[in-house]
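Hey, I'm writing a tutorial for new members on how sequence and structure tokens pair up, and I'd like a real worked example in the thread rather than a made-up one. If someone can provide the structure for the chain below, I'll link this post from the tutorial.
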Amino acid sequence: MRPAIGRGLRARRSPRAGRPRASRRDRLAPAALFLIILGIWYFISLVILDPDRRFLLPSPDAVVRVAFLDGHNLDQLLRALWLSTSVALIGLCVSIALGMVVAIAMSQARWIEKSVYPYAVILQTIPTLAMVPLIGFWFHYGFSSRVIVCVLIALFPVISSTLFGLQSVDQGMLDLFRLHQIPRWRRLVHLQLPAAMPSTFAGFQVSAGLSVVGAVVGDFFFKQGSPGIGVLIDLYRARLQSEQLFGAVILASLLGVAFFTFFGWLSRLVTGRWYGVEIH
């Protein structure tokens, strides 16, 4: 029996032995792809495009020099980024709170689900651009209207993901709770909500990225007050300031990535003890 046990232990250790190499490959592959994209960008900008058409795609170093190394442009971009971040954060928090409440209510009563869910789907399928003029008429064209656009865009993923998680609880566990006559609210707190957390946080991640999209879209139409990233993008487009335009787009993209990454980290922090443990 000892040789067989030894072979089993060696077989179990072998995946761990290959981890450092795989980890290095996982880190190097994105960096290599990034360099390839930069090379293609430089090739198109400096080789394919004529000098008088180079404003269509300025080189990466020109974008960095004009948009980020110039103090005036950088200050303008950072101020706009802060406003868009505030709009996206508030809209995301409202979406999470409202979406969780709606999803929990629908999970507790079938008639609530059948009454509310179709309207949630309709709200998601209505083009946001069609709602923007109405939002402007009702709530004017300032900060609050931008937040409402964020909520409209980011709300549905929270509702659908949370509802899916709440309704996917193991039926045996539900029967066990019912057998012991545990109240409905305790089943929700101690069974359904913990079991739904992976799905719920997946919805949070999607909504986090969409909230940034909502902030930028709201900026395009609601331009009263301080300008956000969307206002600057529209302004740079009208002035053909391509370096500043690319800088604003890059900052907006990084903001969305930061939101998405934060909720991914938060999901692993909260649910990793139960759902993310690798067994070797």
